[in-house]
């Protein structure tokens, strides 16, 4: 059974609602029921009240949409279970007694919800209440919907918003019902999942292979219409939109070029925000390519299925009035507070700031020396690309598993740079140019540290030549990786709160590591010590370089037995790690490639 962060399985729905109300002063619980109401119920006197609800597990739906300009209240069932008739009737009575001028129930098209809300409606009408019900079915999954009709999924949230804006503006129950019914007919939603979900205390609702995704599944883990191999995000979005708008699909949404839509990109619960942004961009791009205008785009978690790693796309065809209703203000906590405007991938970019003119570069190198440098750099790049997987594997034990990716990105950037221009002839200019490439393209802490090292080494080499100069350059690079920022002292924390005077001030450091801390610096420092022999008269540079490489490789292997004193590895509970440090291994490999 998958792990869940709950207090008790049986009480998880009550606890979730209680937590939401505790953190939001605009919400109140109805005593004795899992019902959330606006705290300002008196404000609905003479206005239409809007009630919705359904099973828990879809958070922030539905309680997140209670507020001025959206729902008056919601009734929550247990996880994935319809709420009881008694609680729904209690909510209807509460808003009726507050003076509501009619009550509209907004219900997702599931048998349990229809039955329970419908029975409560009949009983309330028998008591004299003016109650209507709108059933939302926006699912575009099934080519031939069964007797139950289309399922109600994320599009329901847009109905909440449209109805809420109309009610806040003082529209009558007849007008709201009519306009909401019309909106439900120009709306469609389709889901796609990479994983199942699991009710607390239960096993997952279904299984997907590592290389599979499911199209058209419901928000309770119900099976979809097609199981297929995992696609890239852009292809997955194209597949979804094609299915949603396919005329042979009886539940399709008719979408002609020139149409204007509101787009909702909804996280089904477990998708990362990074993936959600990629999907959102792909959806906007795909719709634009079809000639569709995206009047508004909403991206986030609107109606989830617990921890399901998936996404749904909702499209609602809109005119100016519907856009105004979507834009209307609301205090509902789960509705995004966005600047009103269309979505597009064609926004004009902010011009990049102009760089200060650079000093004239040395002439480009030609001849045997330049060719030799080119070969060395190509060997370094090939070495890093070949060991990408190994570095990633080493990094998984102590970091985030991307050391190989970071070094491969550096290698690819250097290769592209070499193809685009002749290499500088002077060593100082070459190292400085390489530093610029790595600082701009490599990323991560490694990119900064390599950039610092090469920049300082280049400065040390300016106007100098000969073997001792390279030893000095190595020392200068290592010093730059360790030294303090000139004149900068931490007297306060990043939030601006001064440290107590009894605490010593800590200088800002670029790298913060020292030899023996199990970092890339261990290999660099070992090599630099060996390179000191270059300062001795008559030293054989090739022998010294070979010794430096051997020292770096030995130091890299020795990090296997070191305690981590800096970097991500220092946060690992067991500071003694079984594998050598990936940064130290990479440095030793680079030095070895230079010597080959």
UniProtKB/TrEMBL annotation:
Source organism per UniProt: Chloropsis hardwickii
Keywords: ATP-binding, Cobalt, Kinase, Nucleotide-binding, Transferase
EC identifiers of the protein: 2.7.1.28, 2.7.1.29, 4.6.1.15
Official protein name in the record: Triokinase/FMN cyclase
Biological-process GO terms, alphabetical: glycerol catabolic process
Catalyzed chemical reaction(s): dihydroxyacetone + ATP = dihydroxyacetone phosphate + ADP + H(+); FAD = riboflavin cyclic-4',5'-phosphate + AMP + H(+); D-glyceraldehyde + ATP = D-glyceraldehyde 3-phosphate + ADP + H(+)
Subunit structure: Homodimer. Interacts with IFIH1 (via the CARD domains), the interaction is inhibited by viral infection.
Pfam families per record: Dak1, Dak2
Biological classification of the source: Eukaryota, Metazoa, Chordata, Craniata, Vertebrata
Region (Disordered): 344-370
Biased composition (Basic and acidic residues): 345-362
Database matches in InterPro entries: DhaK_dom (IPR004006), DhaL_dom (IPR004007), DhaL_dom_sf (IPR036117), Dihydroxyacetone_Kinase (IPR050861)
Cofactor (UniProt): Co(2+)
SUPFAM superfamilies with a match to the protein in the record: DAK1/DegV-like, DhaL-like
Gene Ontology MF annotations: ATP binding; FAD-AMP lyase (cyclizing) activity; glycerone kinase activity; triokinase activity
Protein's job: Catalyzes both the phosphorylation of dihydroxyacetone and of glyceraldehyde, and the splitting of ribonucleoside diphosphate-X compounds among which FAD is the best substrate. Represses IFIH1-mediated cellular antiviral response.
């Amino acid at each position: 059974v998958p792990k869940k962060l709950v207090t008790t399985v049986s009480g998880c729905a009550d606890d979730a609602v209680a937590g939401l109300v505790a953190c939001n002063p605009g919400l109140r619980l109805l005593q004795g029921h899992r019902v959330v109401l606006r705290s300002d119920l008196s404000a609905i006197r003479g206005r239409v009240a809007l009630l919705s609800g359904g099973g828990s597990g879809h958070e922030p739906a539905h309680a997140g949409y209670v507020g001025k300009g959206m729902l008056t209240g919601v009734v929550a069932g247990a996880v994935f279970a319809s709420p009881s008739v008694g609680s729904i009737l209690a909510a209807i009575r509460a808003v009726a007694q507050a003076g509501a001028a009619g009550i509209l129930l907004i219900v997702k098209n599931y048998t349990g919800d229809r039955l329970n809300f419908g029975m409560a409606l009949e009983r309330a009408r028998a008591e004299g209440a003016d109650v209507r019900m709108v059933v939302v079915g926006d699912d575009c999954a099934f080519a031939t919907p069964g007797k139950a009709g289309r399922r109600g999924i994320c599009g329901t949230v847009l109905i909440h918003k449209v109805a809420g804006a109309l009610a806040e503006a003082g529209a009558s129950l007849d007008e709201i019902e009519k306009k909401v019914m019309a909106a439900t007919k120009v709306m469609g939603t389709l889901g796609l999942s990479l994983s199942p979900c699991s009710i607390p205390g239960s096993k997952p609702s279904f299984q997907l292979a590592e290389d599979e995704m499911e199209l058209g599944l419901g928000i309770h883990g119900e099976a979809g219409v097609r199981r297929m191999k995992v696609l890239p995000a852009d292809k997955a979005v194209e597949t979804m939109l094609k299915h949603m708008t396919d005329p042979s699909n009886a539940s399709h949404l008719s979408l002609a070029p020139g149409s204007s839509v509101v787009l909702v990109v909804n996280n089904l619960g477990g998708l990362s925000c990074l993936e959600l942004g990629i999907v959102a961009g792909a959806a906007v791009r795909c719709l634009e390519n079809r000639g569709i205008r995206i009047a508004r785009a909403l991206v986030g978690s609107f109606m989830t299925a617990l921890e399901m790693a998936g996404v749904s796309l909702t499209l609602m065809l809109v005119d100016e009035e519907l856009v105004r209703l979507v834009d209307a203000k609301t205090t509902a906590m789960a509705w995004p507070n966005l600047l009103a405007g269309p979505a597009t991938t064609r926004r004009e970019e902010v011009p990049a700031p102009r760089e200060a003119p650079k000093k004239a570069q040395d002439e480009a190198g030609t001849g045997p020396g330049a060719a030799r440098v080119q070969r060395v750099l190509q060997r370094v790049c090939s070495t890093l690309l070949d060991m990408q997987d190994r570095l990633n594997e080493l990094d998984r034990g102590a970091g985030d598993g991307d050391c190989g990716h970071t070094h491969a990105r550096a290698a690819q950037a250097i290769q592209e740079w070499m193809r685009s221009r002749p290499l500088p002839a002077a060593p100082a200019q070459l190292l400085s140019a390489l530093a610029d490439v790595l600082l701009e393209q490599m990323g991560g802490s490694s990119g900064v540290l390599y950039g610092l090292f090469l920049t300082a080494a280049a400065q040390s080499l300016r106007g100098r030549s000969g073997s001792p100069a390279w030893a000095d350059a190595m020392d200068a690079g290592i010093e730059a990786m360790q030294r303090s920022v000139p004149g900068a002292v931490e007297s306060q924390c990043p939030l601006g709160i001064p440290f107590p005077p009894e605490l010593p001030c800590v200088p800002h450091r670029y790298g913060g590591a020292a030899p023996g801390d199990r970092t890339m610096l261990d290999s660099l420092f070992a090599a630099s010590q060996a390179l000191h022999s270059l300062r001795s008269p008559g030293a054989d540079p090739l022998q010294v370089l070979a010794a430096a490489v051997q020292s770096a490789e030995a130091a890299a292997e020795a990090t296997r037995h070191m305690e981590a004193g800096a970097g991500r590895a220092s946060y690992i509970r067991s500071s003694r790690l079984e594998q050598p440090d990936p940064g130290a291994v990479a440095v030793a490999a680079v030095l070895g490639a230079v010597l080959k």
